[in-house]
C-alpha cells in the first residue's frame, strides 16, 4: 500500500504501536468476540492501558491530546482486525465530543479524566424509535424540578449501552420549539430511573452491544446540563461533523483488513496449476479494491485535517468521507468473499465477518442517503 501523504512521523509511530497491539491482543480474539456476541472487556483494558481511549481528549483533562488524524489512524488499525473492537474508541469519542464542545471548564475537569483514562466508558443517546434520521422529532423530555432535571423517554440503537457508565443524552426541554427545544445532559448508569433495555441481535459488530435505554422519571442534578439549555441539537450536529469521518476510518480499516486477507489467500490458493492471483480477472478485482480503499482513506484523512483546522467546509468533507468509505467497505468486503469462493462464505475465514461488519458503516451516524443530502445541500446552498 502506498504511504498516505498526510501521515507525519508521529502518526506513523502511532500506527505501528496500534497495529502491534491489534495483532497481539485483538486479532486472536476477533472470531471469538463475533461468535460470543459479548463485549470484549479485555480489549477495552488493552486500549485503556495503552492510553488510547483518551487519545482525542486534551492533556489538561487527562488525555493524550491527539489530533483528529491520529484518532482516525487508531480506529482504522483496530478495525482492520476487529470492527467490534473499533467501536470502543469510536463511541468513546462520540460521547465525549459534545462535552468537549459545550461543557463548562468545571464540568470538563470533573467528567473527562476518568473517560480519558478508560476507567469509565460513555455512550451517546440521540436516536429514538420514531426519530432516527430525524432526530429533531425526539420525544424524550427533560423537565426542571428545583435543583434537578427529570428525564422521561426511551432511546434506541445505543452503542455500548451496558458497558458504559456515562451517557450523553439529548432530550426536549421545550417540546414546542423543535430543534431549538433540545438540550444535552450527562446521565450516569446509577442515576435513579435509568435502565438499559434489551440488546439487539445484529448482523454484524456483534461484540459491541446495541441496546435501548430507558428514562423513567430519571432524576439528575441540575449541573448535569451540558452547555446552554436549548442548544443540544446544535451540539449534536457539531459532534457528527467530528465523528462521521471516524466512521469513515472504521470503514477503511474493515476494507483494508479484507484486502489483506484476500491478497494472502489468492497468493497461495491454486487452481489450474497456478496461484489464482495470476489470473487477470482476480488481479483486476484486487486493483479496484485497493484503489477504491485508498481513495476513501484519503477523503477520511483530508476530512480529519479539516477538523483539526476548524475548516468551514468540515460538514461536507466529513459527510463525503463517511459516504465514500462506507460504500467502499461494503463493496470491497463483498468482493473479498468472492475471491475466497466457497470458503469465503464460511466462518473459517474472516472475510464473511468483515462483510457483515461493513454494512453498519452505511447506516449508523447518518445513513448514506442522509450523507448524500448533506453533501448536496452544501453544494447547492439555499435554493
Provide a count of the helices: 11
Computed CA radius of gyration, to the nearest angstrom: 21 Å
Terminal Cα span: 43 Å
Could you say which overall geometry the principal axes of the C-alpha atoms support?
A: globular
How confident is the prediction overall: mean pLDDT?
96
| Annotation, overall tally of beta strands | 10
Summarize the amount of helix as a percent range. Answer: 40-55%
Spatial arrangement of strands, main beta sheet:
1-4-5-8
Main sheet overview: 4 strands, mixed
Stretches with pLDDT under 50, minimum 5 residues: none
Strand content: 15-25%
What is the H-and-E element order?
HHHHHHEEEEEEEEHEEHHHH
Supply the helix-strand structural class: alpha+beta
Can you describe this structure?
The protein has about 375 residues and is of the alpha+beta class. Helix content is about 50%, strand content about 15%. The strands form three sheets. The protein has a four-stranded mixed β-sheet with strand order 1-4-5-8. Strands 2-3-7-6 form a four-stranded antiparallel β-sheet, with no helix packed on it. Helix 5 (about 85-100) runs antiparallel to helix 6. The longest helix is centred in the middle third of the chain and has 37 residues, at about 230-270.
Summarize the structure.
By secondary structure, this protein is α+β, with helices and mostly antiparallel strands. It is built from 11 helices and 10 strands. The longest helix has 37 residues, at 232-268.
Amino acid at each position: 500500500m502506498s504511504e498516505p501523504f498526510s501521515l507525519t512521523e508521529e502518526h506513523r509511530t502511532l500506527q505501528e504501536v496500534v497495529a502491534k497491539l491489534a495483532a497481539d491482543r485483538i486479532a486472536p480474539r476477533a472470531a471469538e468476540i463475533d461468535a460470543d456476541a459479548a463485549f470484549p472487556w479485555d480489549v477495552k483494558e488493552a486500549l485503556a492501558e495503552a492510553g488510547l481511549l483518551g487519545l482525542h481528549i486534551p492533556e489538561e483533562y487527562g488525555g493524550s491530546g491527539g489530533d483528529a488524524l491520529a484518532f482516525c489512524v487508531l480506529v482504522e488499525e483496530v478495525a482492520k482486525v476487529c470492527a467490534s473492537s473499533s467501536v470502543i474508541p469510536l463511541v468513546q469519542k462520540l460521547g465525549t465530543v459534545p462535552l468537549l464542545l459545550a461543557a463548562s471548564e468545571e464540568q470538563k475537569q470533573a467528567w473527562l479524566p476518568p473517560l480519558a483514562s478508560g476507567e469509565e466508558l460513555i455512550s451517546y443517546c440521540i436516536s429514538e424509535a420514531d426519530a432516527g434520521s430525524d432526530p429533531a422529532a425526539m420525544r424524550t423530555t427533560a423537565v426542571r424540578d428545583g435543583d434537578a432535571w427529570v428525564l422521561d423517554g426511551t432511546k434506541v440503537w445505543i452503542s455500548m449501552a451496558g458497558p458504559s457508565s456515562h451517557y450523553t443524552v439529548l432530550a426536549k426541554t421545550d417540546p414546542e420549539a423543535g430543534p431549538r427545544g433540545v438540550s444535552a445532559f450527562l446521565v450516569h448508569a446509577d442515576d435513579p430511573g435509568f435502565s438499559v433495555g434489551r440488546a439487539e441481535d445484529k448482523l454484524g459488530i456483534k461484540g459491541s452491544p446495541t441496546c435501548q435505554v430507558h428514562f423513567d422519571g430519571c432524576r439528575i442534578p441540575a449541573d448535569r446540563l451540558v452547555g446552554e439549555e436549548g442548544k443540544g441539537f446544535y451540539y449534536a450536529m457539531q459532534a457528527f461533523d467530528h465523528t462521521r469521518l471516524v466512521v469513515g476510518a472504521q470503514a477503511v480499516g474493515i476494507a483494508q483488513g479484507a484486502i489483506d486477507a484476500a491478497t494472502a489467500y489468492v497468493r497461495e490458493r491454486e487452481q489450474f496449476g497456478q496461484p489464482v492471483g495470476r489470473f487477470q480477472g482476480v488481479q483486476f478485482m484486487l486493483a479496484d479494491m485497493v484503489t477504491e480503499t485508498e481513495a476513501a482513506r484519503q477523503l477520511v484523512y483530508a476530512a480529519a485535517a479539516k477538523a483539526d483546522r476548524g475548516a468551514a467546509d468540515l460538514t461536507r468533507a466529513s459527510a463525503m468521507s463517511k459516504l465514500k468509505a462506507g460504500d467502499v467497505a461494503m463493496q470491497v468486503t463483498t468482493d473479498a468473499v468472492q475471491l475466497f469462493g466457497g470458503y469465503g462464505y464460511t466462518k473459517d475465514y474472516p472475510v464473511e465477518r468483515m462483510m457483515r461488519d461493513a454494512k453498519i458503516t452505511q447506516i449508523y451516524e447518518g445513513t448514506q442517503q442522509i450523507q448524500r443530502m448533506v453533501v448536496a445541500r452544501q453544494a447547492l446552498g439555499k435554493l
